[in-house]
Amino acid sequence: MIRLLHVDDDPGILDLGKHFLEHSGDLIIDTATSAEIARRMISECAYDAIISDYNMPDCNGIEFLTQLRQKDSRIPFLFFSDYGDEETVIKALTGGADFFLPKGIHVRSQFIQLEHAVRESVMRRRAEQKCEKISSVLRIREAAVRSSLCPLALCDNEGKIQYANPASLKVWGYHDEQEVIGKYASDFVVSPEIPPSAIFDLLRQKTWMGQATARRKDGTTFDARVYVNTMTDESGAPLGFVASFTDLSRQKRARGQLESYVRDIRFVSEKANELADLALDTDVSGFIADVLYDLVPPGSLVIYSSVHADSVIRVEAARSTDTILSEVERVIGRPIAGLTLQSTSQGLSSMLPRTFIEIEGGIDAITFGQLPPELCRKLQEFPLSGRIIGSGLLWGGKVNGMTVAILPPGFFPENLDVLDLFIRHCSAVLHRREAERQLMRIPDLPEP
User: Fold this and answer.
1) Please, are residues 433 and 281 in contact by the beta-carbon 8 Å criterion?
2) Which in 114, 158, 314, 399 has the greatest CB count within 10 A?
């Protein structure tokens, strides 16, 4: 659900906004007729976004925005006003507004635009919050590994290990401390830039910090951050060395996962904006299939279909390598695009929710049992035939489209929720495009 606060000194506009925006069922609209009332409501309730007029009796919209940004700099703020010269719009946007939408005479279309802007702003903010949360968790985990979970080993003056704590044994792949006691520290380092003869020189320095390649019991290696300090007695005579180290594998993997997630989020946001800007007479099926193909593992087969009356499913676009597409089309004896299948609406809704899920039953399940068993068997034997994921495009209480990805064996998308985010974008845009087409066929509502 999305909770909004709509601020306008015109009760008629507030009533119209509440009527149109709450029609979808997942928007809750609270209203305020002045900035003063709005400030009180904001202090008592958490809102996902603020919609505000510019001209109001107690203060203008930019003053209201400035006051709000002093307390909450990130909440989406949208101007919806019939006052909007170029200077005012620029001042509003530079002051932190997300959108500045003009009121017009086309009531229904302007509220469709407003709803789209609200959803885009809220979705972007929630994606940012999710990225911030992931980043925060990763920083905490990294700090914990460096400190309390850091492996530790004690060496004598000759560089022989005298003690290794459980954390270091686990990282090295040992179970018994006696397996490492008495071994030289150089036995666990294989860095080409640090030859064994240099280990003793490094250990004899009072302190040393650097990165090295460490060797586990089974012979595998990992990158480690190493800290070496001299242990001395009360007179300052050296007793040995303490070496602490951190396995960087998890840290690098986590950083790579975060970078991949942020990169995919940015890619989806850009493509969602491109999709929203496509003209009504543009076929968006290929665009959607192209984006999904970029998000799934290489070598997958992506199929995007539309759902029509009587639960007729029509394949609109398919994306994969040329080899895979030609081989599939050779087996089924026709192009994939244009293929039609029949399904019950109840079965389709239960099989494909709003989020991507793994579909059990293989090729037979995604073709609703309408391909001959021999064809299903041949398709299932393809090298690409691994796990199958799919999602429905839902609006208006029903499935209006579906997308399926057949993955290569052993592969699965790293960021499945990014696929979900794009499909929700697609559903919202396709819903809007459908509404706009309907508006083109009916007259505008009269002015209230």
Assistant:
1) no
2) 399
Tokens representing 342 are: 């029949």
Beta bridge partners of 4: 29, 49
Q: Where in the chain is the domain with CATH 3.30.450.20?
A: 150-252
Residues facing 238 on adjacent strands: 232
Convert 406-438 to b/e letters by CB count within 10 Å (16 or more is b): bbbeeeebebbebbbbbbbbbbbbbbbbebeee
Closest alpha carbon to 299 in 379, 374, 421, 410:
410
Q: Where in the chain is the domain with CATH 3.40.50.2300?
A: 2-144
List where CATH 3.30.450.40 sits in the chain: 278-439
All residue ranges of the chain with pLDDT < 50 are 144-148, 445, 448
What the block records as the tokens of 28 is 């809750």
Angle at CA of residue 421, ends 401 and 431, nearest 5°: 40
Sheet holding 398-406, edge to edge: 340-342, 312-319, 301-307, 398-406, 388-395, 357-358
Distance CA 229, CA 209 (A): 9
CATH number of 278-439: 3.30.450.40
Is-contact 409 437, C-beta < 8 A?
no
Domain 150-252 has CATH 3.30.450.20: yes
Long-range contacts of 349-353 (CB under 8 A, 24+ apart): 349/392, 349/398, 349/399, 351/390, 351/392, 352/390, 352/391, 352/392, 352/399, 352/402, 353/391, 353/392, 353/394
For 446, list phi and psi in degrees, rounded to 5: -65, 155
What pLDDT does residue 145 have? 34
Full-model pTM: 0.49
CA–CA separation, 302 and 309 (whole Å): 23
- Structure tokens belonging to residue 9: 């000194």
Homologous superfamily in CATH for domain 2-144: Response regulator (3.40.50.2300)
Written as six digits, the tokens of 116 are: 């789209």
Structure-token match 């996902």, residue found: 48
